[in-house]
Amino acid sequence: METAVAQAFRTAAQAALLVAAAPLVTGVVQKWKARLQCRRGASVVQPYRDLAKLLRKGTVQADTATPFFRAVPVLVLAATVTAAAMLPVLWAPAEGAALPLGDAILLVGLLALARFLLAIGALDAGGAFGGMGASREMTVGLLVEPALMLAVFSIAVAGGTTDVGLLAARRGSLAVAWQAPDLLALFAMLILALAETGRIPVDNPDTHLELTMLHEGMLLEHSGPGLACIVLATHVKQLVTLALVAALFLPLGLARGAAPAELALALAAFAAKVALLAGFLALVESSYAKLRFFRVPQFLGVGLVCAFLALALRVL
Amino acid sequence: MFLSVDLATRLIDVLGALLLFTMLLILASGQLFRAIYAVAAQAAFLGVAGAVLAAATGNVDLWIIAAITIGAKAIFLPWLLLRVVRRVQISREIEAVIPMHVTLALAAAIVVLAFHLNASLGPVRQAITGNALPVGVTLILIGVLVMASRRKALVQMVGLFASENGIFFTAMAISQGMPLIIEIGVILDVVLGALVMGILVLRVRSSVDADIADLESLKG
User: What pLDDT is attached to residue B208?
Assistant: First the structure.
């Protein structure tokens, strides 16, 4: 049994790792996407440069915006980073840990809170595109969140807990981690991950064309350090989604103690898992076109029914 | 007996999940080609399921049926459908009678129904089959849903094949293989039906430029 302080320290270390690595993951996805499209592409550290540039800039704000508007980026970043702290990245938590950190329902709730704050901020600024982006983002969120919960529940039923860390630890220790429902839940999660990370069949992270953007539309009114916060939050949210998929479906290689060799192995395993999922994102993004917005519910509906089927196979 | 019963049950469960996933792809695909590829993949998984059962039970007939399934339903029939699609040059968009989200909701309802039904069919379940019975029933009913909710005759054929795959899966898993002659007869029926429908679609298309929905206007 470890102390609460040690556990809090480990949680903070894992969150810091996720936040520090998140822009790199975006950079890697962009680089691979460019290579798949026979372009050379920007360096993988380009997202860090963009963030540094934004942090040096000043802030301008619409006349119609309330003081709350300035707090939005910080709150979004805070909610996302808190969500990042709930995931098992390097360490598998011990059974009966002192602090019950890492509940999957709270994790999804925090991501929903970040989404809500972002939409409120976009509406607050009063721009037409912000409102349109917010409306679309909430429509997508309406379809993604219940499906995400269903997929997580179908795993949680097997593991007997909703704590993501414990789920990963228990499934990692069992040789029989993989059953038929996991396959359907994985398909559902891969479909939902594309929507959660704002990738191509649902949203296009590269576009600023008014009629097609979802997520970018909500960022238009933000500038300077505030925009940097939101962009960083977007990177972190992407890595959180990938880490959630990795924790639920590939719960291998998590460290139990603090030995350096064990930690190095856990870090390598985590990097490999994220690289695999990032490769999936890059591949899908290069080989599909963006869906018309009214087709998106159909695409996400497949994910929803898949997650539902996974739960049905497990429970009924 | 090459496979232990436990491993065979798990493999059949996994293949059942894959069959369900391909079924969803058929149901939700907006394009004709995707639906046809999905039904081909579904038939291939069905053939693999037959091979797994054959290995687990040592039933030689199942090997033959698995081979025929893959040859006829995963290769020949999709090829035929794709050929018909190219020949008639219809639009590739699938037109639905009811909106797609309603169809998906109906599919979810069918899943609950099938699994609920399964609970009352306890004695039929066998050790080796796991979840095969509700999965098979789900496949049959969603296939019927595809047939009922689409306008194009070709997509209705895809629905028929998917439904037939479900019947096959159920029969294979529950009875561990019907007599060979019956299985072959069923496959011949499907192939013949597909040929007749394919030719009919081609002929109707070439003589009158009509859609299935246009037949509604013939009613007195």
Answer: 63
**pLDDT at residue A56, as a whole number:** 95
In the predicted structure, residue B173 carries a pLDDT above the cut 80:
no
Read off the pLDDT of residues A103-113 as tens digits, 9 standing for 90 and up: 899 999 999 99
Would you state the pLDDT for residue A238? 95
What is the SS3 string spanning chain A? CCCHHHHHHHHHHHHHHHHHHHHHHHHHHHHHHHHHCCCCCCCCCHHHHHHHHHHHCCCCCCCCCCCHHHHHHHHHHHHHHHHHCCCCCCECCCCCCCCCCCEHHHHHHHHHHHHHHHHHHHHHHCCHHHHHHHHHHHHHHHHHHHHHHHHHHHHHHHHCCCEHHHHHHHHHHCCCCCCHHHHHHHHHHHHHHHHHCCCCCCCCCCCCCCCCCCHHHHHCCCCHHHHHHHHHHHHHHHHHHHHHHHHHHCCCCCECCCCHHHHHHHHHHHHHHHHHHHHHHHHHHHHCCCCCHHHHHHHHHHHHHHHHHHHHHHHC
- Which residues does A217 contact at the CB level (< 8 Å), separation at least 6? A122, A129, A130, A132, A133, A134, A136, A137, A210
Contact criterion met (CB < 8 Å) for B17 and A183: yes
Highest mean pLDDT among A33-37, A285-289, B58-62, B118-122: A33-37
Tens of pLDDT, residue by residue over A231-264, are: 999 999 999 999 999 988 888 878 877 788 888 9
Question: pTM, whole model, 2 decimals?
Answer: 0.88
Note the pLDDT of residue B133: 83
Identity of the residue in B18, B104, B118 whose CB atom sits nearest the CB atom of A183: B18
pLDDT confidence tier of residue B53, bands split at 50, 70 and 90: confident
Quick one: pLDDT band at residue B206, thresholds 50, 70, 90? low
Nearest CA in chain B to A297: B101
Q: Which of B28, B30, B111 sits opposite A309 (nearest CB)?
A: B111
* A312 contacts on B by Cβ (under 8 Å): 111-112, 115
B100, B139, B169: best to mutate for the A interface, most A CBs within 10 A = B100
Instruction: List the single residue in A180, A295, A304 with the smallest CB-CB distance to B17.
Output: A180
| Inter-chain Cβ pairs, chain A and chain B, closer than 8 A | 66
Interchain proximity A306–B112, CB inside 8 Å: no
Buried/exposed B77-103: b ≥16 CB within 10 Å, e otherwise: bbebbbebbeeeebeeebebeeebeeb
Q: Do B17 and A306 touch (CB under 8 A)?
A: no
Q: Look-up: residue for tokens 């839940």?
A: A185
Six token digits for residue B178: 């019907």
In chain A, what residues touch B101 (CB-CB under 8 Å)? 297-298, 301
